[in-house]
Amino acid sequence: MALIQLKNIHKAYELGKTTVTALRGVDLEVQGGEFTVVMGPSGSGKTTLLNIIGLLDRASSGSYRLEGEEVGDRDFNDLAELRNRKIGFIFQSFNLIPVLNVLENIEFPCLIAGESKRTLRERAERVAADVGLSQFLHHRPDELSGGQRQRVAIARALVTQPQLVLADEPTANLDSATSEQILDLMEELNRTRHVTFLFSTHDPRVMRRARRVVRIADGVLVDGTAEARHETRMLEMA
């Protein structure tokens, strides 16, 4: 059974008297354990697609099954609970809370869900160790480098033990060497913990690492075609 099953997903936004169509009949399946990139130019629909997969937005029509369960018709309270339990997010701007230290930032999504801090602390420390942050638990974000802040964001995404992590341009604000280190870390987590990673990116370094590239243009998906495979080979040669 696929982790994600999207069938005939459409998404349109009403902007005043104008209707803007972002997605046009998208079909997509993602299996557990994938390390997949969604690529496309600005305005192609990739952010909308990730927002729907991440339960941050709803499709206008179509079916979305997460672990075989239809979620597209859930109310927003149910979606928030599912999102917190099943999906982790990594953002290009890190989105850390500046007044909290590293450990508190990692724990934050679990505390929002009502988990006891006593039971959470050991797991948060273990996840921090997994991403190389054990020496920085009591540092605040402004005391960390960009790469360290992104490691905090990765740990925060993993502490809820999600089946899926969505990463939106996770290397956009990092230099080349730090980007490679972050990608090494995510590949290792994918391999050892079998965490499914779905990226939205323009970064060739990320696309070179992907085991699958999904291309989107004008709200239409191109998945597994000769064109997508050719783009991946060209990136590998770059």
Condensed summary:
The protein has 238 residues and is an alpha/beta fold. The chain is 39% helix and 26% strand.
Describe the protein's architecture and organization:
- With 238 residues, the chain is an alpha/beta fold.
- 39% of the residues lie in helices and 26% in strands.
- It has one domain: 3-Layer(aba) Sandwich (Rossmann fold).
- The protein has 8 helices and 10 strands.
- The strands form 2 sheets. It has a 6-stranded mixed beta sheet, with helices on both faces. It has a 4-stranded antiparallel beta sheet with strand order 2-1-4-5, with helices on one face.
- The longest helix has 18 residues.
Structural class category: alpha/beta
Distance between the termini: 35 Å
Largest sheet: 6 strands, mixed
Task: Determine the strand fraction and express it as a percent band.
Answer: 25-35%
**Helix count from the secondary structure assignment:** 8
- Element-by-element helix/strand order: EEEHEEHEHHHEHEHEEH
Question: Which CATH class applies here?
Answer: Alpha Beta
CATH architecture: 3-Layer(aba) Sandwich
Average pLDDT number: 89
Biggest sheet strand order reads: 6-7-8-3-9-10
Q: Pick out the low-confidence regions.
A: 224-230
Q: Shape from CA axes?
A: globular
Number of E-state strands: 10
Annotated CATH topology: Rossmann fold
CATH fourth-tier homologous superfamily? P-loop containing nucleotide triphosphate hydrolases
> Domains counted in the coordinates: how many?
1
> Rg from C-alpha positions?
18 Å
- Work out the helicity level: 25-40%
